[in-house]
Specification:
alpha+beta; Nucleotidyltransferase, domain 5; five-stranded mixed sheet; 11 helices; 18 strands; disordered N terminus
């Protein structure tokens, strides 16, 4: 049966630097894979997407490209992004009998008009009938369960793969926002640089990311933890094994985490007094993969002197927000770009 004969349904997409998540109206999250594509340079044939493509990074022959086509939350390689999205949407649409869906996409609040058009074009060329762009922090706030439509201040910090988005929300709109290109990818890079500088070992991105997820912390853990890392000796070039501790990882991440706290502080300083008084009571909500850094709530609370909470499903907040907007078109009409 042709896809064009399938019943029409609507999709919500978190087009993240690190991962793509897709939610189908009335179905929940139906796709969750790394934002990576491998394709043949000459034929433009897609070889792999998601986890399989991620495993190919740095290992491909000359005629095959394995790439993360999104950088800092926006399209860095349009051809690769279009190939990846087309493959992803064909898989989802084929499996769930979807044709020409309306698509809601979460994008960074600081996205330019040119970047926004590139996202729209990539989604439309992948088979969508309509595209609605919404600010990621607004989607994250809605997905976190914050009551964004009320005349009261809420603040959300979405620490994604490429960007950290800060937004003060009231009456269904963003009153103050701040976006910095320091987030999960930068934290991974911090660990790689620390290992090279202090431990004399060169490790890959996947190793550093695993260390970040397992023992990454913003303040000391109750019990210090260690992880074994394998890589190349920075002097001899030979294989080497080292241990890295949670205290060392905390030190490696400190500067970037402090910059994230400073970005939130800047947003708070620009927030009207009436909304600040609400935030002082309600506190700050943290979403995104960066919310999983251990003790990040304690660090932000210490630096900002307000209560800090971690969203129940920090990795899914943006895509859950797009799903809720698909179920409430009035809200979508108010918050879409």
């Amino acid at each position: 049966m042709s896809i064009l004969n399938f019943a029409s349904k609507d999709l919500g997409i978190d087009l993240g630097t690190a991962n793509i998540l897709i939610t189908l109206k009335d179905k929940g999250i139906v796709y969750r894979e790394p934002s990576v594509v491998a394709y043949n340079k000459e034929t433009k044939e897609v070889i792999a997407i998601g986890e399989k493509a991620k495993s190919m990074l740095g290992k491909t022959p000359k005629n095959i490209v394995a790439i993360r086509p999104l950088k800092d939350g926006v399209i860095a390689d349009f051809t690769a992004t279009k190939l990846m999205l087309k493959e992803v949407l064909e898989r989802v649409c084929g499996k769930y009998r979807v044709t020409k869906p309306k698509v809601v996409v979460g994008v960074p609040s600081g996205i330019t008009d040119v970047e926004a058009r590139a996202v729209e074009e990539a989604i439309i060329s992948s088979g969508a009938s309509e595209v609605y762009l919404v600010d990621e922090p607004m989607a994250a706030a809605i997905g976190s369960g914050l009551k964004v439509g009320e005349p009261a201040g809420n603040i959300i910090v979405d620490i994604g793969g490429g960007t950290t988005e800060v937004a003060v929300v009231s009456l269904g709109g963003i009153v103050v926002s701040n976006s910095i290109k320091i987030a999960g990818d930068e934290l991974t890079e911090d660990i790689m640089q620390y290992a090279k500088r202090r431990l004399n070992i060169i490790i890959g991105e996947n190793t550093a990311e695993k260390v970040k997820k397992e023992i990454g912390c913003a303040k000391p853990l109750l019990t210090e933890e260690y992880r074994e890392i394998r890589g190349r000796d920075a002097n001899t070039g030979l294989p080497i094994v080292r241990d890295i501790s949670s205290i060392e990882v905390e030190y490696a991440l400190k500067i970037s985490l402090y910059k994230i706290a400073e970005a939130v502080k800047v947003a708070l300083e620009q927030t009207p007094p009436e909304l600040i008084s609400d935030i002082a009571v309600k506190g700050l909500m943290v979403a995104g993969g960066g919310a999983l850094i251990k003790n990040i709530d304690a660090l932000l609370s210490e630096k900002l002197e307000i209560p800090v909470y971690i969203s129940e499903e920090p990795l899914d907040c943006v895509v859950n927000g797009t799903r809720k907007m698909l179920e409430d078109m009035d809200t979508l009409a108010k918050v879409s770009k």
